[in-house]
Amino acid sequence: MKLIGENLVCERGGRTVFSGISFTAESGELLVLRGRNGAGKTSLLRMIAGLNEPVGGQMELQGGRDDEDIALQCQFIAHQEAFKPAMTVAENLQFWSDFFGGGDILDALEAFSLEPLADFSAALLSAGQKRRLALGRLAMIDRPVWLLDEPTVGLDVNSTEQLRQLMRKHLDGGGIILATTHIDLGIKETAVLDFNAVDDQAELTSIGEAE
Amino acid sequence: MKPVIAILKRDLLLAWRQGGGVGTAIGFFLTVMVLLPLGIGPDLGLLQKIAPGGLWIALLLSVLLSADRIYQIDYDDGSLEQMTLGPVPLELVAGAKAMAHWLSSGLPLAIAAPFLGFLLNLDTKLILPLLGAMVLGSIGLSLLASLGAAVTVGLRKGGLLVSLLVLPLYVPVLIFGISASAAGQAGPDISGSSFIILLAVTLVIVVVTPIASGAALRTFMR
Fold this sequence. Notes:
The complex is a heterodimer.
Chain A (H helix, E strand, L loop, with lengths): L1 E11 L2 E12 L2 E6 L6 H8 L7 E7 L11 E4 L11 H12 L4 H7 L15 H14 L4 E5 L7 H16 L3 E5 L9 E5 H4 L2 H10 L1
Parallel strand pairs in A: 3-7, 3-8, 5-6, 6-7
Antiparallel strand pairs in A: 1-2, 1-4
Helix pairs in contact in A: 2-4, 3-4
Chain B lengths: L1 H17 L1 H21 L3 H22 L3 H8 L2 H6 L5 H27 L10 H25 L7 H23 L1 H4 L1 H34 L1
Helix pairs in contact in B: 1-6, 2-3, 2-6, 3-6, 3-7, 3-8, 6-7, 6-10, 7-8, 7-10, 8-10
């Protein structure tokens, strides 16, 4: 399987966020998106997830299910966790499992050691626990392309290791991962898409000098 | 179909647990029904005459009261974003959420209305036609309110805008709803045909609003 983006252009609110972004991510590969704040890393993930319309360029998922949109073969873990405080941890997961046609919620709970919290209200979770709950969806819903927006924010060392293992397993199973992150996840098959490289060099140096 | 049922179940559970929507709507409905006769005075004949209209207007405003929350929370916490990646189109998601709103606030209000009608000296002959027309009409009211909520989902304090957008669309439901309810007053023929027109209006709303809501939500997501 191969996810290809060619010369993508993103515009938001009349401003060009990025242009001329091209990338390729193959089965078993982690593509890390790097770049300064506002470079459009999240916008690119949202574009692949079908939440932004590209102004130019094209995307293609080779070897996927051709009859389905790319977005339907993606799992997008965004900044917002999409959980209801009025429901328990287990109920929240069960809803997303039913909605996405996913598997057992135990997989999601076990992936980030959340079993003891299953019957408690999601309102009681800390920021890191909410993050783990959101990432747990990755373990129970089977989709080949993962789009992770800053997945490690708020995670402690143990949970980061659990995330690394989960990503490892997904890559070994032939999955594709695109992630924006600033820490090294210790995964060998990592390619980097550097947003700064395609930006205006003059602007970058001037920022560098100011600092 | 499973995703749609999942949304329906979740929204009903949330409505039950949080109580906000239904509680506020029924409380408002009850308050209007209690205050109306006090404001108009003890003229039983007059009260009986205005009872169906009073009930309908109170129902309409109560449904509207809880409407702006249909999509707002899901939009804010990222649930709606996840739902766009789901196996069902956003139109069905919108339909399921509007249906949950009807089941949790429109339907209970419609069922409670004839009983609250006693406070207005409602003619007992009118109880059944009123109940039928209100159950049917409230489907349309909930769906139209959900359309207003979808169109204003990305706006802070969209409540006023929802009312302004939705009120004109409520007029046909109100007109045919009242004339279908007022069986004894206008004669069975008129109320029968009004009921059929109300049914037609509701069917059009059932088909059109989820499509429009889905399109509106998709625009806001971009």
